[in-house]
């Protein structure tokens, strides 16, 4: 049963209580074709303002956590939901902190505590061995059961001291490859161009735009316009009558990067299926 407290103008819920993520998400959407007519401050809300309960991240991968959060928020609110799971994967730690990045120093640890613990653990590691990736998997789930995921990565080197005031989390200690600044020293626009979260949400943006335009058309009684990008080919999963929860994660692994790319016309926001244009498109 829906327990949503979202405002009547809300069109999509971002499954986060992190104001930094909400700001980044609204900024990314504001630059997407078709979004200029929306008041994104009203249309895009976070889980807290929608009255959603905390959702435990019980998955063992970024993809599992992103999907379980998006599914639960969509079920709770009756609105399309977007969620992500992201973290820092450090080479010499075998990919850790990984899915535990937000609680590396404990379940209720602050960003500063997590960052300082990691710096202590890497104190004696030389720069050439301090390689790491920011990793993000973003997921879109609609009340009809359609599901999309996309992954983004940002490669860099971990600094020995925090630098910069922008961003959050581990941003002050990752220096992206080819950059002289930390992620926290970049402007939001610069960060969105290269960040793991920016890349993942950019991959997902075509599907998000289509969902919002479709909803807007329904509310106004007009036929939805086609804003698909014909230069991108979509991938199909699922058959009528198949529970998307049983197909989406497994099917995602069959496509490039383990992600489904929703920019094309193939994404039907009213269906639990992603419809291939033909048999060959799903393999390309």
UniProtKB/TrEMBL annotation:
<keyword id="KW-0460">Magnesium</keyword>
<feature type="binding site">
    <location>
        <begin position="168"/>
        <end position="171"/>
    </location>
    <ligand>
        <name>substrate</name>
    </ligand>
</feature>
<feature type="binding site">
    <location>
        <begin position="16"/>
        <end position="21"/>
    </location>
    <ligand>
        <name>substrate</name>
    </ligand>
</feature>
<dbReference type="Pfam" id="PF01725">
    <property type="entry name" value="Ham1p_like"/>
</dbReference>
<comment type="function">
    <text>Pyrophosphatase that catalyzes the hydrolysis of nucleoside triphosphates to their monophosphate derivatives, with a high preference for the non-canonical purine nucleotides XTP (xanthosine triphosphate), dITP (deoxyinosine triphosphate) and ITP. Seems to function as a house-cleaning enzyme that removes non-canonical purine nucleotides from the nucleotide pool, thus preventing their incorporation into DNA/RNA and avoiding chromosomal lesions.</text>
</comment>
<feature type="binding site">
    <location>
        <position position="85"/>
    </location>
    <ligand>
        <name>Mg(2+)</name>
    </ligand>
</feature>
<feature type="binding site">
    <location>
        <position position="191"/>
    </location>
    <ligand>
        <name>substrate</name>
    </ligand>
</feature>
<dbReference type="GO" id="GO:0005829">
    <property type="term" value="C:cytosol"/>
</dbReference>
<keyword id="KW-0546">Nucleotide metabolism</keyword>
<keyword id="KW-0479">Metal-binding</keyword>
<dbReference type="InterPro" id="IPR029001">
    <property type="entry name" value="ITPase-like_fam"/>
</dbReference>
<comment type="similarity">
    <text>Belongs to the HAM1 NTPase family.</text>
</comment>
<dbReference type="GO" id="GO:0036222">
    <property type="term" value="F:XTP diphosphatase activity"/>
</dbReference>
<dbReference type="InterPro" id="IPR020922">
    <property type="entry name" value="dITP/XTP_pyrophosphatase"/>
</dbReference>
<feature type="binding site">
    <location>
        <begin position="196"/>
        <end position="197"/>
    </location>
    <ligand>
        <name>substrate</name>
    </ligand>
</feature>
<feature type="region of interest" description="Disordered">
    <location>
        <begin position="217"/>
        <end position="284"/>
    </location>
</feature>
<dbReference type="GO" id="GO:0000166">
    <property type="term" value="F:nucleotide binding"/>
</dbReference>
<dbReference type="GO" id="GO:0046872">
    <property type="term" value="F:metal ion binding"/>
</dbReference>
<dbReference type="GO" id="GO:0009146">
    <property type="term" value="P:purine nucleoside triphosphate catabolic process"/>
</dbReference>
<feature type="active site" description="Proton acceptor">
    <location>
        <position position="85"/>
    </location>
</feature>
<dbReference type="GO" id="GO:0035870">
    <property type="term" value="F:dITP diphosphatase activity"/>
</dbReference>
<feature type="compositionally biased region" description="Basic and acidic residues">
    <location>
        <begin position="217"/>
        <end position="234"/>
    </location>
</feature>
<protein>
    <recommendedName>
        <fullName>dITP/XTP pyrophosphatase</fullName>
        <ecNumber>3.6.1.66</ecNumber>
    </recommendedName>
</protein>
<feature type="binding site">
    <location>
        <position position="86"/>
    </location>
    <ligand>
        <name>substrate</name>
    </ligand>
</feature>
<keyword id="KW-0547">Nucleotide-binding</keyword>
<comment type="subunit">
    <text>Homodimer.</text>
</comment>
<dbReference type="InterPro" id="IPR002637">
    <property type="entry name" value="RdgB/HAM1"/>
</dbReference>
<dbReference type="GO" id="GO:0017111">
    <property type="term" value="F:ribonucleoside triphosphate phosphatase activity"/>
</dbReference>
<keyword id="KW-0378">Hydrolase</keyword>
<dbReference type="GO" id="GO:0009117">
    <property type="term" value="P:nucleotide metabolic process"/>
</dbReference>
<dbReference type="GO" id="GO:0036220">
    <property type="term" value="F:ITP diphosphatase activity"/>
</dbReference>
